[in-house]
């Protein structure tokens, strides 16, 4: 028994040392990437076993789970697509069956709308040995695959989880101490330099608790100042970007665990926290953004214009607030690799989210720095926001959606409903106009008709009947 405990102790000591090294000098040793390469080989083995044991499908048979409906197959009823399903462009007049298009769209929205599915965990094409992403009991396909799954479960929950928690606690303590230390210095070049160095180091240390592997592309476009905007998948988006560059943050105030980071960050630099429900607070944020962006000595300020976390497959509507500031915008696209762990925040409690992250294999993502963009003369803030959003979605290989992400929790805006009503009312108006035109033509015909006796009229009617 003593031999078993000694073996367990040495395993924990070895893994803890590996995690400490991966949290500090992983750039030189490449420990995280080697770990990812090992996982890829394990996933490849599991996929081969699944494909080998999966019953052969008949010719022409398609697995429904592997052929999701494309975005273009389901038309949208939004302010960008005002015409309902079934309403043709060249329609003339109103008929009762025209309402069927609206009924069809309404029933489709109840069964599967175009918002909710983008706030659910991303479906994987292959199994990653995580039970929470399994829908078809892959772990019981074969004996060897079952053994791999059990060993992986024990490693993730009994070895990685407790040691990652230790790394996280150490990282938070290091982060708080470093930011408090930076806050003791007066504002100036030395404080900004020290803040940048400790900021990146502390975030990289905390990222070691998640075995984060981020690949940064086109680093020549990395922002130095001004405003940086990125798509939003997870609260750790800021953690990912901060392992490579120093940013000032803008975001909704939070309570609990996230408030620890916010208070620590506020000691060292000029971060902006606001309450979204307060309209006056939003007006102050715009002014503070202008002041911050105009100061070239301050770090770039990081903003997520979507305002909500989306499931890594699409980019929702960008709020126009940050695009009203007359300054250069640095777009950043983030795309997570869900094979190793889903970074999307869909849980109700933040503790459950952290637990899900720390019991995943790793967090892997790609980050693209896009060329800086500026608003064109005469271009509205909304049009500029849509242009930046389209660039980010294209680079990240995600779907560009016009929907407001807050529709997942809030009712549809009144102006959107009014837009649909106005579109439908046009057909009624067209029908009324046609009736009026026919009546006017009839009256003109009566006025222009030559006078004659009733016998002449009856003769004309008989000839017409013949």
From TrEMBL:
Region (Disordered): 423-466
Single GO molecular function: glycerol-3-phosphate O-acyltransferase activity
One of the GO BP terms on file: triglyceride biosynthetic process
Domain Phospholipid/glycerol acyltransferase: 226-337
Record's compositionally biased regions (Acidic residues): 431-441
Transmembrane segments: 6-25, 141-159, 165-186, 198-216, 350-370
Cellular component GO terms held in the UniProt record: endoplasmic reticulum; membrane
UniProt key word Repressor: no
Subcellular location: Membrane
Key words, A-Z: Acyltransferase, Lipid biosynthesis, Lipid metabolism, Membrane, Phospholipid biosynthesis, Phospholipid metabolism, Transferase, Transmembrane, Transmembrane helix
Pathway: Phospholipid metabolism; Lipid metabolism
Keyword Acyltransferase: yes
Coarse class of the protein's main subcellular location: membrane
InterPro entries: LPCAT1-like, Plipid/glycerol_acylTrfase
Compositional bias segments (type: Basic and acidic residues): 442-452
Family the UniProt entry places it in: Belongs to the 1-acyl-sn-glycerol-3-phosphate acyltransferase family.
Protein name from the UniProt record: Phospholipid/glycerol acyltransferase domain-containing protein
Species name: Scylla paramamosain
Organism lineage: Eukaryota, Metazoa, Ecdysozoa, Arthropoda, Crustacea
């Amino acid at each position: 028994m003593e031999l078993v405990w000694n073996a367990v102790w040495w395993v924990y000591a070895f893994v803890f040392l590996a995690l400490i090294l991966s949290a500090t000098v992983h750039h030189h040793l490449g420990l995280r990437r080697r770990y990812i390469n090992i996982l890829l080989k394990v996933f490849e083995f599991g996929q081969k076993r699944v494909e080998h044991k999966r019953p052969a499908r008949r010719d022409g048979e398609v697995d429904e789970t592997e052929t999701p409906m494309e975005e273009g197959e389901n038309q949208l009823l939004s302010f960008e697509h005002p015409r309902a399903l079934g309403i043709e462009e060249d329609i003339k007049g109103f008929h009762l069956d025209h309402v069927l298009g609206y009924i069809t769209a309404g029933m489709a929205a109840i069964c599967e709308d175009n918002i909710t599915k983008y706030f659910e965990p991303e479906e994987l094409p292959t199994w990653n040995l995580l039970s929470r992403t399994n829908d078809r009991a892959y772990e019981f396909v074969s004996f060897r695959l079952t053994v791999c799954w059990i060993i992986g479960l024990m490693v993730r929950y009994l070895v990685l989880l407790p040691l990652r928690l230790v790394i996280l606690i150490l990282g938070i303590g290091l982060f708080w101490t470093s930011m408090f230390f930076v806050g003791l210095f007066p504002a100036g070049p030395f404080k900004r330099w020290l803040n940048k160095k400790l900021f990146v180091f502390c975030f990289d240390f905390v990222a070691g608790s998640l075995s984060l592997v981020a690949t940064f592309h086109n680093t020549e476009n990395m922002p130095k100042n001004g405003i940086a905007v990125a798509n939003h998948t997870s609260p750790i988006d800021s953690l990912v970007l901060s392992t490579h560059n120093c940013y000032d943050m803008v975001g909704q105030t939070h309570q609990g665990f996230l408030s620890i980071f916010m208070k620590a960050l506020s000691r060292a630099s000029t971060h902006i926290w606001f309450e979204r429900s307060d309209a006056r607070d939003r007006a102050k944020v715009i002014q503070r953004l202008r002041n911050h962006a105009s100061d070239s000595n301050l770090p770039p300020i990081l903003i997520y214009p979507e305002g909500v976390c989306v499931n890594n497959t699409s980019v929702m509507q960008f709020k126009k607030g940050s695009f009203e500031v007359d300054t250069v915008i640095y777009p950043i696209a983030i795309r997570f690799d869900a094979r190793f762990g889903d970074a999307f925040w869909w849980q109700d409690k933040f503790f459950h989210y952290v637990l899900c992250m720390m019991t995943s294999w790793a967090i892997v993502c790609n980050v693209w720095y896009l060329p800086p963009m500026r608003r064109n003369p005469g271009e509205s803030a909304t049009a500029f926001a849509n242009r930046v959003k389209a660039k980010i979605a294209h680079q990240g290989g995600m779907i560009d959606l016009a929907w407001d992400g807050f529709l997942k929790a809030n009712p549809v805006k009144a102006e959107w409903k009014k837009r649909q009503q106005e579109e439908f009312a046009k057909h009624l108006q067209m029908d009324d106009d046609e009736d009026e035109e026919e009546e006017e033509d009839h009256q003109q015909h009566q006025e222009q008709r030559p006078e004659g006796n009733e016998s002449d009229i009856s003769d004309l009617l008989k000839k017409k009947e013949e």
